[in-house]
């Protein structure tokens, strides 16, 4: 009887192990199948998002390449920054900076962060431009700007050696 009981227990155990292995194989198969479906759903949702963005664009919008060429070929003297950006203007992050000048690069970066940012036209001398800026800025912005000017001035002074600190060494007679 003991031999028969061992054989029965061994066969029951091997059937249980086989069922566990088959169960694991079925689980792995379904996980891979679901992964493929998730990839398909991701691609479909991206396609739908692109279509939604295209539908939001105005129907009379110009193609990107033509508009970019028009902005790049326009002379700098003819460009002006309006107080309110026109609705048909192309976003700055697509167009790229106007030139390689530092101020154009900074404007490009600032407009990437906030496309609604405006830049006033400053055509007078430095003092008149600063007065105009002070009138157009809030008190908090002006104080922040003054603080920045002070730090910038200290930086510029630190870069240049002071003329009165130079010591003149007399020439020795030889």
From TrEMBL:
Under the GO molecular function aspect, what terms does this record hold?
Answer: cytokine receptor activity; macrophage migration inhibitory factor binding; MHC class II protein binding
User: Where is each MHC class II-associated invariant chain/CLIP MHC II-interacting domain found?
Assistant: 6-84
| Range of residues in the leader sequence | 1-25
Q: Where is the MHC class II-associated invariant chain trimerisation domain?
A: 100-167
Gene3D superfamilies in UniProt: MHC class II-associated invariant chain, trimerisation domain
Kindly state which keywords UniProt assigns to this record, in alphabetical order: Glycoprotein, Secreted, Signal
Q: Which GO terms describe its biological process?
A: antigen processing and presentation; intracellular protein transport; negative regulation of DNA damage response, signal transduction by p53 class mediator; negative regulation of intrinsic apoptotic signaling pathway in response to DNA damage by p53 class mediator; positive regulation of cytokine-mediated signaling pathway; positive regulation of ERK1 and ERK2 cascade; positive regulation of macrophage cytokine production; positive regulation of type 2 immune response
| GO CC annotations on file | cell surface; cytoplasm; extracellular region; membrane
Regions that span the bilayer = none
Subcellular localization(s) per the UniProt record: Secreted
Q: What is this protein called?
A: HG2A protein
Q: Which gene encodes it?
A: Cd74
């Amino acid at each position: 009887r003991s031999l028969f009981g061992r054989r029965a227990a061994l066969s029951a155990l091997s059937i249980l192990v086989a069922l566990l292995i088959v169960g694991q194989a079925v689980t792995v198969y379904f996980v891979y199948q679901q992964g493929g479906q998730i990839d398909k759903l991701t691609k479909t949702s991206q396609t739908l998002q692109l279509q939604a963005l295209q539908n939001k664009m105005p129907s009379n919008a110009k193609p990107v390449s033509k508009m970019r060429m028009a902005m790049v070929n326009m002379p700098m003297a003819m460009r002006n920054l309006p107080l309110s950006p026109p609705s048909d203007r192309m976003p700055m992050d697509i167009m790229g900076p106007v030139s390689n000048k530092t101020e154009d690069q900074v404007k490009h970066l600032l407009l990437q962060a906030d496309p609604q940012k405006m830049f006033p036209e400053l055509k007078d001398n430095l003092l008149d431009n600063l007065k105009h800026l002070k009138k157009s800025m809030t008190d908090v912005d002006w104080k922040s700007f003054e603080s920045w000017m002070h730090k910038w001035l200290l930086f510029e002074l630190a870069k240049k050696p002071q003329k009165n600190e130079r010591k003149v060494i007399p020439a020795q007679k030889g």
